[in-house]
Design a protein that fits this description.
Blueprint lengths: L4 E6 L3 H13 L2 E7 L3 H10 L4 E3 L2 H7 L4 E4 L6 H10 L3 E4 L7 H10 L6 E3 L7 H9 L8 E11 L20 H4 L2 H11 L2 E9 L10 E8 L4 E7 L1 E13 L2 E7 L8 E5 L4 H9 L9 H14 L7 H20 L3 E2 L8 H4 L10
Parallel strand pairs: 1-2, 1-4, 2-3, 4-5, 5-6, 7-10
Antiparallel strand pairs: 7-11, 8-9, 8-14, 9-10, 11-12, 12-13
């Protein structure tokens, strides 16, 4: 039986291959159209994934097709305009991270969303079974009250990585590792710990040939009282993505790099709480790795049902607002409260506000 859900892919570079492969494995939707400014790359993508119709630009695609879901897989500077065009055509959108360059752009995207046309961001680390289990255990008396957290994205990118014209620039990428790398991990942190309240941060350009930072460090206070350290780096040769959640009666750790499974989680109980903590964790979900497959399955469920797919605009705004607040704190030297960065703030319109200190 031919899958009934129709998908279109905008941008056919490397990340689009992850989307196409996931759709192929899931077998519940088909790619009916794709577009890219690079004709050769578009043709190769179309041939590999048996895409029946290829278009030179998004306007032409939307004029001829009626996709249920548009996958935005282009560089970040194009996301907002392309998402708005797709939403206004009546299609829902699944957009790669970072979803936009600024809070202003995200609010513009929200303004274009309508009944039946929803916007979701790819934050696939929310969807592994370990994260699902931990979210359900927050507030469980067997673990106790959450107290502290660690979220360190310590990655490495060679100088050659930044030779791609849109990388390492605030105007077209939105930021450095705070915006484009660590965002996956601290989005997972936020999905578990809930609303953040304020942030104090520093950012630096250590060694990379970029306009953006290559390192940032933040202390984030949550509405529930949890205090977290968040570090985002592309200058760390031994790469690690490390998250730690401390509760009154247990520590839960996740140690991976670019994706995790059940074996990447470690649970340590406080003395006297071993049995209760072990029972709590053992009762949770298992067997689902983080990744595009896991999120796309949930997205396709929602599109088929006509409901907002995860991760919603509200979810994404909490994460994008933290990005903006980290930059605002780092560049102004002030503690930034959630809700502070409105249209009258330069950091609402650009992540670097009035400009990075080193420029």
């Amino acid at each position: 039986m031919t899958p009934s859900l129709r998908c279109a892919v905008v941008g056919t570079g490397g990340i689009a291959g992850f989307h196409a492969a996931s759709l192929h494995r899931l077998g519940r939707a088909r790619i009916v159209a794709a577009t890219d400014i690079d004709a050769d790359r578009l043709a190769a993508f179309g041939e590999k994934w048996s895409v029946p119709r290829l278009y030179p630009d998004l306007d032409a695609l939307l004029a001829a097709e009626s996709p249920d879901l548009v996958h935005v897989c282009t560089p970040p500077g194009l996301h907002a305009a392309q998402a708005i065009a797709a939403l206004r055509s009546g299609a829902s959108v699944l957009c790669e991270k970072p979803p936009v360059l600024s809070l202003a752009e995200l609010d513009a995207v929200a303004g274009a969303a309508a009944d039946g046309a929803h916007f979701a961001t790819v934050f696939q680390h929310r969807f592994g079974s370990g994260a699902t289990t931990l979210r359900e255990l927050v507030g469980d008396p067997r673990l106790g009250r959450p107290t502290a957290a660690v979220c360190h994205t310590l990655w490495f990118r060679a100088d050659s990585y930044f030779a791609v014209p849109w990388r390492g620039r605030f105007d077209v990428e939105g930021g450095g590792p705070t915006m484009g790398h660590g965002i996956h991990q601290f989005d997972l942190l936020l999905s578990i710990m809930g609303d953040w309240d304020s942030v104090v941060a520093v950012a630096a350009r250590q060694v990379k040939p970029t306009d953006t930072e290559d390192l940032s460090a933040a202390i984030v206070t949550f509405a529930n009282g949890v205090v977290a350290t968040v570090v985002n780096s592309v200058v760390s040769p031994r790469e690690s993505s490390y998250l730690r959640f401390d509760f009154e009666h247990a520590t839960v750790e996740l140690d991976h790099v670019y994706g995790y499974g059940d074996d990447d989680w470690t649970v340590t109980a406080a003395p006297g709480h071993e049995a209760a903590v072990a029972d709590a964790w053992a009762a949770g979900a298992t067997g689902v790795r983080s990744g595009h497959d896991a999120q796309l399955a949930a997205v396709l469920d929602a599109v088929a049902a006509g409901t907002p797919p995860p991760v919603t605009l509200t979810d994404a705004r909490r994460t994008v607002e933290l990005v903006a607040a980290i930059y605002a704190s780092a560049f102004t030297g002030r503690r930034i409260a959630r809700g502070e960065l409105g249209p009258d703030s330069p950091f609402y319109h650009r992540m670097d506000g009035t400009g990075a200190p080193w420029t």
